[in-house]
Amino acid sequence: MSKSRWLKGNLHTHTTASDGDASPEYVAAWYREHGYDFLVLSDHNHVTILDEADSKPGEWPLLIPGEEVSSRIFDRTKPVHVGGIGLRTLVEPADEGDIRKTLQENVRRVVAEGALASINHPNHAWAITAEDIVATEGAWALEVFNGHPDINTFGGGGHPSPEEMWDFALSRGKRILGVATDDSHHYVDEFSPQLGNPGRGWIVVNVEKESEEALMEGMRQGDFYASTGVNIHDMKVARDEIVIEFDPYRAELFTTVFRGKHGRELATEEGQEVRFVPPAGELYVRATVYSSRGPMAWSQPLFSD
Ligand SMILES: [Zn+2]
Ligand SMILES: [Zn+2]
Question: What share of the chain is helix, strand, coil (3-state, %, to 5)?
Fold first, then answer.
């Protein structure tokens, strides 16, 4: 990491091209006005592409095309949704009559178009299990946080959170990254915990320059962190040490938990700059950051090899 620029973006956004309540132009402008550098308009089973020539200078973030490939199986009771990031050609949703096979087929179709495939909101209607994630080949990322209220993004009631599912998969040798997203649908009326409003979860990608190509490569390589409000100033691996520096908001304080295989807590560090030397032989190490204000952030896993 530590290239010159950190760019903030949301990967999961709906508009009136599917079931969002505002036009693609309105949604793009909302994200620009709220400090986002890039955005994926990810409508259900629709590739929403705006003509940048219609934008006034600086009115929209950099738009990376995408789609939420959205299957609903078992009499529409179980959603199996896969984000296609950088997708320019419509991918039809699969129905293989089974959660795992449908998930795999949606991922396969996205990857076949050269796009990045994310496994979205596994806990939506409790459709996708940690074992399903382990069994799926080719997925780039898992939504470890999704801001929509129907998503059960922290698990509970006997169900693991997506973050716990992530450790389950990583511990079984799966190389999968973690993203935070809005899954925004509601822009124009009320902002409340009952609605899928924008501005709740995002990623920040470390790039040399602001371009779709650089962002896609940074995402592919895992040069980013996921956040619900924590700002990381810089994050790097210097010799064998992981160093994370934060940009605090006013009197905000941070607790950083470094986790290894099976989500085991390896160390808890406090402060505006934390350092950690991963133990030799640990399969992977990743960090979860807890802000005193409530938001969180997640680093990508760093593998021992
Ligand atoms: Zn979805
Ligand atoms: Zn969605």
Answer: 20, 30, 50
